[in-house]
Specification:
Number of strands: 18
Number of domains: 3
Structural class: alpha+beta
Number of helices: 6
């Protein structure tokens, strides 16, 4: 056992592992760059850089897949472990080695911060119209099935089901819902077409709602820079405890990004709506947009500068203040950073990018530590060189 532990420590701290990780990282970046031509940035990011392994075949067809190359998370994790192990095993503290010690410590901080950022940071967007107040942001890529009780005119009660639970065949229940939900199908990318009255052969996507007149077909993942997947789901609702004998079947509904209006169902005297929407991140505070300003270069339609004048209101702390968000001047509050990201054509709607990154200070700290380490190391060598040169000049 002891010999195995010694060999493992020697391996994890070896220079060979360092060279392997660096070489693998170069190959991964090269392969990922080429793959963007076919799959697009989002898919490559998910399959190559935010994974432990790259799998073959790359498309999830249900067939057996094998790992063919380490992914970004595995390479980064091994490189971080290798650097820490080598630092602990080989280096001994001393003033002559202080610069090298600090430089390696700074690299460890930057690698750890990058890994934590990739694992725990959350990016979303907040779309606000002038005069509107919002207290939630929305995900760029993730979706959720929202089941909303609209019977109360002053308050909507929402049950949000995450996208990763929308697997075909899954039964979903919640104490707030008078029915259970069976996911019949879920498509990451799809196409919706209206079925012509004369078309008697096409099978509609659902038995109730808009889907009863729509043909749903599966599509390949979107790969263009401006293309987006159209996510769709077909769900079956089962009401009451008598669902086992089929008496509680309410029918099937289609929910999709492509449908402008949510689907409705009346159960127990209440009206419920079903919609597939961007995942929401609710805040303990609100932002109100007072004015959005957009300037262009003279004689062109090229944006020059745009900014959002907002009021932040936190009822829990009693804080209320105004802020101006513009390029390179974000608003930071509650562990989140609000950047001015864009606007819509009506020019009275701003789009703010919202970033929550618990380790955002790690790169700054790492750079400072590395800089101090390099200055100290080169400074000590410079002082030693100057001393030796002075001694030689006296002789």
């Amino acid at each position: 056992m002891k010999s195995f532990l010694v060999k493992f420590i020697e391996f994890i701290s070896s220079l060979k592992l360092t060279l392997f990780c660096l070489s693998a990282a170069l190959l991964l970046v090269f392969a990922g760059t080429l793959a963007q031509v076919r799959y697009g940035i989002d898919i490559v990011q998910e399959r190559y850089f935010q994974s432990l392994f790259i799998w073959w075949p790359p498309v999830e067809t249900g067939a057996f897949r094998i790992p063919v190359f380490p992914g970004g998370h595995l390479i980064g994790g091994l490189l971080l472990a290798n650097l820490i192990a080598a630092h602990v095993r080989r280096f001994r503290w001393g003033w002559k080695k202080a610069g090298i010690q600090l430089t390696h410590g700074g690299l460890i901080i930057m690698l750890a911060g990058g890994l934590l950022t990739d694992l725990f940071s959350v990016e979303s967007f907040m779309r606000i119209q002038e005069g509107e107040t919002k207290r939630y942001s929305e995900s760029f890529l993730e979706r959720e099935l929202a089941v909303i009780d609209t019977s109360d005119p002053s308050l909507d009660r929402v049950v949000a089901i995450p996208e990763d639970r929308l697997e075909p065949g899954r039964l979903i229940s919640h104490e707030s819902l008078p029915f259970r939900i069976v996911v019949k199908d879920y498509l990451v990318n799809s196409e919706l077409k209206m079925i012509a009255p004369s078309d008697t052969e096409s099978k509609p996507a659902s038995s109730r709602g808009s889907g009863a007149r729509i043909l749903l077909t599966k599509q390949s993942r979107a790969t263009g820079m401006k293309d987006r997947d159209t996510r769709s789901a077909v769900v079956e609702l089962i009401a009451g405890p008598d669902a086992a004998d089929g008496a509680g079947l309410l029918g099937t509904w289609l929910v999709s990004d492509a449908l402008a209006q949510p689907q409705t169902v009346e159960v127990g005297g209440k009206v419920w709506t079903l919609t597939l929407r961007a995942k929401r991140y609710y805040k303990p505070f609100s932002l109100t947009l007072h004015e959005f300003t957009h300037e262009r270069y003279p004689g062109t339609q090229i944006p020059k500068d745009f900014s959002s004048e907002v009021t932040l209101n936190d009822e829990d702390t009693g804080e209320s203040r105004e802020a101006l968000i513009y390029m390179n001047h974000p608003l930071r509050y509650g562990g989140e950073t609000f950047y001015q990201a864009g606007f819509e054509r009506t020019e009275d709607v701003t789009v703010l990018q919202v970033v929550r990154n618990p380790s955002f200070v790690a790169p700054y700290i790492g750079c400072v530590v590395v800089g101090v380490g390099l200055l100290l190391q080169f400074g000590m060598h410079l002082v030693g060189f100057a001393g030796r040169r002075k001694a030689l000049s006296k002789t």
